[in-house]
Amino acid sequence: MSPVSRGFHGRRRDDAPAERVPPGQYVTSDFPVLSAGPTPHVPADQWTFSIRQAGSVLKSWTWQEMRALPAETVTADIHCVTRWSKLDTRWQAVSVDTLLEQAGAEAAFVLAYSDGGYTTDLPIADVTDGQAWLAFGYDGGPLDPEHGGPVRLLVPHLYFWKSAKWVRGLELLDQDEPGFWETYGYHMYGDPWREQRYAGD
Amino acid sequence: MNALDGNAIGGLLQEVFGTEMTTATGICGSCGATGQVAEFVVFLRAPGTVARCRNCSAVLMVIVTAHGMNCVDLRGLADLAVA
Amino acid sequence: MAGTAVRRGLSGRAAAGPTRALRRTLTWQVATVAAVRTETASTRTIELSAPDWPGHRAGQHLDVRLTAADGYTAERSYSIAAAPGEPLAITVQRLDDGEVSPYLTEELRAGDQLEVRGPIGGYFVWDADGPASPLLLAAGGSGIVPLRSILRHRELAGATVPARLLYSVRSLADVIYRAELERFAGGVPVTYALTRQQPPGWTGHSGRVDGALLAGVAWPAAGLPGSAPPAAADPVAYVCGPTAFVETIAEGLVQLGYPPGRVKTERFGGPGGS
Questions:
Q1: Which domain does A122 fall in, by range?
Q2: Which of A22, A76, C32, C45 is 20 to 30 A from C204 via CA?
Q3: For chain A, how many structural domains are there in total?
Q4: How much is the ipTM here?
Q5: Do A181 and B48 lie within an 8 Å CB cutoff?
Q6: What are the structural domains, with CATH classification, of chain C?
């Protein structure tokens, strides 16, 4: 048994209604930066986003083209698998539905891919019907590179490793393929409400 | 958020491998660069610990602690020789 | 000989200290805070008593684990400030946005307990009975801690290997172990780079370490004109501090002709890290 360190509390945790906090999580007012690699720095005018399938690009958007799409303010609670949750985060974002409709293809799964090589997989059902966005703004300003700017994927109903930072495209797949953290032992789906942190949970 | 180096995971690696590992020499499976674990580029603040090649940034080692067990993936290394 | 006395370590066992410190299985053990000592406004040395501590080599670090009443744990690594053979001690710098350092530098007191694991590290270490290579020690901020262990070990062991210290810090008030470094200064020249604030009349270096300062302080790399005596011993550099500082100095030394293998580096979190 580890002795309790007298007077040590760890970071201040915020109070929150229990129904908003998934099991095993604590609420923070910070916005921790977690990364598996160096922060890419891509100027907006060099940023593009593509939807690909079977080796071809179905459709691609430049920054300007993406910004011309209908955007919305998204307010969401986010839950990191490292146990912190942040409530009522505000994003400026374009719905992934809009992009998939324009690309016009069908698939069962997607693999999101990012600058720096990060990937994460999701069922198409979890990035449609108003559940997923490309976010370019956070808390009233442009999305900072350390938080995934210029654009990140935003899928708040799953653990936040699924909200790929520095996202550059979606690969449409027939079968689920593990992305970066899934390959190294994290859960393929990642529902915070069922505490699906690791493979086999 | 700056990267650290392999010194920062010396304790974790010694616990996992049962011996001092910061002086172990690795060969990057992507670019062939040789380096000591102490000199790997290490990202600690993540769902797992990621060690990358200082030369080409390829992932060399990933350590995930799941249900109290350390899972070490070394597939990014072509070789790892304990000193 | 002084070297042999240091190798025996605290317990008086005759086993070779460095080998024991490398090969034992690492487990967490409970340590009691024996004393705390303020070093600067933001740093504090914590002397620890750990009954199963096997001793350590200069430059090694230990991991600290804290457990809150609700079971939440946090772990951090800290360089050992003491020389081999001295009572175990770490020096901790308070980071404003830190989770652990404010607790260790402000709340922790003698009699408290925490868990430690170590000693750790076989790369960023220096042994007085090793090769007599001229030493260049370069510290940024709290990177001075393992280098101070090296300097104390060198002194306790009676080693005569030439050594120089380059210490980059915001202001003189932020210099950790200042009186002690001045005491070493007869045998170990200390060059400060004061990056933010300099006292009136300061004739030393102001601002970050640049190529010219580094060239003036560093032992010439072996084989180059003016190489330090003894000619046969390649200088070795130990560079420790925030990542940006370490990369600047290491790159600078390589440009001065140091083989990369003669520049040992240990990076601490940069600004914003905890």
A1: 23-29+58-194
A2: C45
A3: 1
A4: 0.95
A5: yes
A6: 2-120 (2.40.30.10), 135-268 (3.40.50.80)
